[in-house]
Structure formats: C-alpha cells, structure tokens
Amino acid sequence: MSYAGTVSRAGASLGKKILFMYSSYTIY
C-alpha cells in the first residue's frame, strides 16, 4: 500500500516534469 502510493506519487511527479519539458521543447 505505502510502496504503491510512493511509486504512484513519484510517477505523477515525473510525468508532470516530462510533460513540461516536452511542451517547452515543442514551443521552441
């Protein structure tokens, strides 16, 4: 339970970071 929650939270954070980098890259 705790492990899954940590992985989920880390995945969401990583996904947001990748999405931000990707959108910044496409703008430029």
How would you characterize this protein structure?
With 28 residues, this protein is mainly α. The chain has one domain (1-28). Helices cover 93% and strands 0% of the residues. It has 1 helix and no strands. It is rod-shaped. The mean pLDDT is 74.
Along the chain, the helix and strand elements come as H
Strand content: under 5%
Separation, N- and C-terminal Cα atoms = 41 Å
Derived from helix and strand composition plus strand pairing, the structural class reads: mainly alpha
- The total of helices stands at 1
Count of individual beta strands: 0
Report the radius of gyration as a whole number of Å: 12 Å
Low-confidence stretches: none
Characterize the main sheet: none
Count of separate structural domains? 1
Helices and strands, with pairings:
Layout: H1 2-27
